[in-house]
Amino acid sequence: MQVLMIDGQGGRIGKEVIERIKAEQLPCVVTAVGTNSIATAAMLKGGADRAATGENAVIVNARAADVIIGPIAIVIADALLGEITPQMAVAVGQSPAKKLLIPTGQCNNIVVGANDLSVKTLLAGVIAELKQSL
User: Which pLDDT belongs to residue 68?
Assistant: First the structure.
């Protein structure tokens, strides 16, 4: 199973998701793609099997992924203060992969009802969904 973790800014969410995947010893290869080098480095520290940075890395790896995980911003052009390009959002949206999107309230993209959930609870839900996909 090929899991693609996409994150931007500081990569904190991506790092934490990858740490949880590795702690659970889930049978998957985790590719981390950061929208910037800081996010990529954080996800590598979290235990990603391999990593890359930037728009083309998102486009190429979205084609091969079975599951894509990331903040909901990865499907919204110009989100994360402009780190998500329109081409990135299209690549994720058009990928046949199952998408596990984490609702964060950054950059005026708010998922109503998700604000009451802690990041810990949201990430536990990601791991539970990933387990069902395996």
Answer: 98
